[in-house]
Design a protein that fits this description.
The structure holds two protein chains of two kinds. By secondary structure, chain A is mostly beta strands. Chain A is 0% helix and 57% strand. Chain A is globular and about 40 Å long. The model of chain A has no long low-confidence stretch (mean pLDDT 93). Classes of the chains: A mainly beta, B mainly beta. At the A-B interface, strand 4, strand 5, strand 9 and strand 10 of A face strand 5 and strand 9 of B.
C-alpha cells in the first residue's frame, strides 16, 4: 500500500540554522509533490510545488528537492527564524488525489 | 469571501447524533476536497468534487459519512450516528481545477467532538 513518511520526531533547531525536513514515499509514483505549512488551529497553507521532472525549486528562504529514484523530497528552510515554527506537511499528487504525510513539527529556538 | 469558510468552527455532539458540516469554497474554484485530521495526525482524504463530475468517494470511512455539493459552491459533509472515533478536525479545501499541481486553499476546519 502507499506510504508517506516524514521526519518521525519533532525537529528543534537554533535560529539562523538551516532546517531540513524529509519526505519519503513507497508504492507511489506521484506526478508532483507539494509542501504545506500548518499552524495550530489553522488549515494548511501551500508553500511550494515541484513536479516529477524537476530536481529543485526555490522560493525566498525555501528550497525543495525531488528525487524520484530515491522516492524522497527534502525541504530546506535557510536562515531559520522562530516564526518558521510550525508543522510542515508534504503531499503527493496524481490525477485526482493529493495524499498528505503526517507532518513534521519544527521548532526554531531563539 | 476571500478564503474558504467552514462552519461551525466547533461542534460538540452526543454519540449517536447526526451532524452536518458546511464548507463555502473560494468563488470560481471548481474542485473541493474534504479531509479529516485526528489529533497529531496527518490529513486523511475523505471525498473530492470536481465540477459536475461524479465525486471521488473512495476515502469515506463508512456509509455513515456522506457529502454533497451544490454545483460549484457550498458543500456539506454529513456524519450519521456519530461515534467517538469520529472526533477530529474536518478540513475543507478548494482549488481552481483538477489535479496537475493546483494548490489547495484550506479553511480553518470544524473541530468535532463526540461525547
Amino acid at each position: 500500500s502507499q506510504k508517506i513518511e516524514q521526519n518521525s520526531e519533532a525537529l528543534n533547531i537554533q535560529e539562523g540554522k538551516t532546517a531540513t525536513l524529509t519526505c519519503n514515499y513507497t508504492n507511489y509514483s506521484p506526478a508532483y509533490l507539494q509542501w504545506y505549512r500548518q499552524d495550530p488551529g489553522r488549515g494548511p497553507v501551500f508553500l511550494l510545488l515541484i513536479r516529477e521532472n524537476e530536481k529543485e525549486k526555490r522560493k525566498e528562504r525555501l528550497k525543495v528537492t525531488f528525487d524520484t529514484t530515491l522516492k524522497q523530497s527534502l525541504f530546506h528552510i535557510t536562515a531559520s527564524q522562530p516564526a518558521d515554527s510550525a508543522t510542515y506537511l508534504c503531499a503527493l499528487g496524481s490525477a485526482r488525489q493529493l495524499t498528505f504525510g503526517s507532518g513534521t513539527q519544527l521548532t526554531v529556538l531563539p | 469571501g476571500a478564503g474558504v469558510s467552514q462552519s461551525p468552527s466547533n461542534k460538540v455532539t452526543e454519540k449517536g447524533k447526526d451532524v452536518e458540516l458546511r464548507c463555502d469554497p473560494i468563488s470560481g474554484h471548481t474542485a473541493l476536497y474534504w479531509y479529516r485530521q485526528r489529533l497529531g495526525q496527518g490529513l486523511e482524504f475523505l471525498i473530492y468534487f470536481q465540477g459536475n463530475s461524479a465525486p471521488d468517494k473512495s476515502g469515506l470511512p463508512s456509509d455513515r459519512f456522506s457529502a454533497e455539493r451544490t454545483g460549484e459552491s457550498v458543500s456539506t459533509l454529513t456524519i450519521q450516528r456519530t461515534q467517538q472515533e469520529d472526533s477530529a478536525v474536518y478540513l475543507c479545501a478548494s482549488s481552481r481545477g483538477q489535479g496537475n499541481g493546483e494548490k489547495l486553499f484550506f479553511g480553518s476546519g470544524t473541530q468535532l467532538s463526540v461525547l
